[in-house]
Design brief:
By secondary structure, the chain is an alpha/beta fold. It folds into two domains: 3-281, Mur-like, catalytic domain (UDP-N-acetylmuramoyl-L-alanine:D-glutamate ligase), CATH 3.40.1190.10; 289-426, Alpha-Beta Complex (Protein-Tyrosine Phosphatase, Chain A), CATH 3.90.190.20. Helices cover 38% and strands 16% of the residues. The strands form three sheets. The protein has an eight-stranded mixed sheet with strand order 4-3-2-5-1-6-7-8, sandwiched between helices. Helix 4 packs across helix 5 (115-129) and helix 7 runs parallel beside helix 8. The longest helix has 17 residues, at 314-330. It is globular and about 60 Å long.
Length: 431
């Protein structure tokens, strides 16, 4: 076990629950730390059900193309914890991370605090100590009581599409979940809001009105669409004719448009040329990601495609299915889906958008995840629902079997935890 893993294991034992939405514990710890959350560069705070990470990836690409130094806070990580904290453009170094974690652990003095709270406090410390021009801050879950919601006056807030997810913590309807997401909106801070279902939009409108905010609404105040293979953005400042996003899938035009609108509405020092460069250079691992090399890719013949996506809820599955549909329209291939999921997810519901593709499905138990669906049980559920599914012992055995199917398109999906395991075994962890 590495030193980082040993520290993180100690920190994970400080609270009996993995998730306990509250701000009391982190505010107490931040006070003991001298309130680093009050000494941050301008913050753009992002909440929503899906597309938070992609939206932040675009913002980072635009800002860095314009020569800005950018902090980023994302979760969860795929392979290494360091991926959660990017300091002025570079993932935090292991020695620096370990020292900060141990200092915060010492200040906490064994008091009850969740893993996400104590590690977020550590991130705030590192962000406050390292000079940068902006901080792109992603919520962990929800908004109102999310651990990141301790920044009193962000430069701007973004709410990506709200859908059903984490119902046990956020509510059983889109309206209830939207109430939580709306908690990041702040009086005096500009807001940009992505495409919403009617019940979610109504909640967000009321919250913005109470705070005296007039948000920009996607689909009303700004639009992004594909035209002759390029991206056309139309917003409050006119049209932009841009290259298509490097991130794949039709939904990425919406995600890119949301980031472009925020860039312009918040007055970021980014011109159209930097946006164009950012669209070409943006990266976001395990989101409709082609694996073109690596140890696992070598198990497939050259005529096979291998794709990796960490989407794990119904909204993400629908977006992923649209991406696969576009690929199938361009070049039809036999679709093989290699799938692992956490056991609070419904594999049948996840796969419904893919039914028309008649995929062959191989199920996996996610390695090292105690709360994962067992491969055999998941295959049984899918077979009962009319899918062709069978369990496999490992990702390598699944790919070896897929290699026997001529000219196949192979998609590994269902969980970010599975995606992280795949990237590690492929030898291509995120940079």
């Amino acid at each position: 076990m590495s030193r980082t893993d040993a520290i993180l294991k100690r920190l994970s034992g400080l609270h009996p629950k993995l998730i306990d939405l509250s701000l009391e514990r982190i505010l107490r710890l931040l006070e003991d730390m001298g309130n680093p959350q009050q000494r941050l560069p301008p913050v753009i705070h992002v909440a929503g059900t899906n597309a938070k990470g992609s939206t932040i990836a675009y913002l980072r690409a635009f800002l860095e193309a314009a020569g800005q130094r950018v902090h980023v806070y994302n979760s969860p990580h795929l392979v290494r914890f360091n991926e959660r904290i990017r300091l002025a453009g570079t993932l935090v170094g292991t020695r620096q991370l370990n020292a900060a974690l141990e200092e915060v652990e010492h200040l906490n003095a064994g008091r009850s605090i969740t893993f996400f709270e104590v590690t977020t406090a550590t991130a705030f410390k590192l962000f406050a100590e390292t000079p940068a021009d902006f901080l792109l801050l992603e919520t962990g879950m929800g908004g109102t009581y999310d651990t990141t919601n301790v920044v009193d006056q962000p430069l701007g807030t973004i709410i990506t599409p709200v859908d059903l997810d984490h119902q046990a913590f956020l509510g059983n309807s889109i309206a209830e979940i939207a109430v939580s997401k709306a908690g990041i909106l702040k009086r005096g801070a500009k807001a940009v809001i992505g495409l919403q279902q009617p019940e979610g939009r109504a909640v967000l409108e009321r919250a913005a009105h109470r705070l005296g905010i007039r948000p920009l609404w996607q689909g009303e105040d700004f639009h992004g669409q594909v035209q002759d293979g390029r991206m056309v953005f139309q917003g409050e400042d006119g049209l932009l004719d841009l290259p298509p996003p490097a991130l794949l899938g039709p939904h990425q035009f919406d995600n890119a448009a949301l980031a472009i609108a925020a860039t312009r509405h918040f007055g970021l020092p980014v011109d159209a040329a930097a946006i164009a460069i950012g669209l070409r250079q943006v990266t976001w691992p395990a989101r409709m990601m082609p694996l073109r090399s690596g140890k696992l890719r070598a198990l497939l013949p050259a005529d096979h495609e291998l794709w990796l996506d960490g989407g794990h809820n119904a909204h993400g599955a629908a977006a992923l299915a649209r991406s696969i549909a576009a690929l199938q329209d361009a070049r039809p291939q036999k679709l093989i889906m290699i799938m692992g999921m956490i056991n609070n997810r419904d594999p049948v519901a996840f796969l419904e958008p893919f039914r028309s593709f008649a995929p062959e499905i191989m199920t996996l138990t996610i390695p090292g995840e105690a709360n994962a669906h067992k491969a055999a049980a998941m295959a049984g559920l899918l077979t009962e629902a009319g899918f062709t599914a069978h369990p496999k012992r490992s990702i390598a055995s699944a790919l070896s079997e897929a290699a026997q199917v001529p000219d196949a398109r192979v998609l590994i999906c269902g969980s970010l935890y599975l995606a992280g395991d795949v990237l590690a075994k492929n030898g291509t962890p995120p940079d």
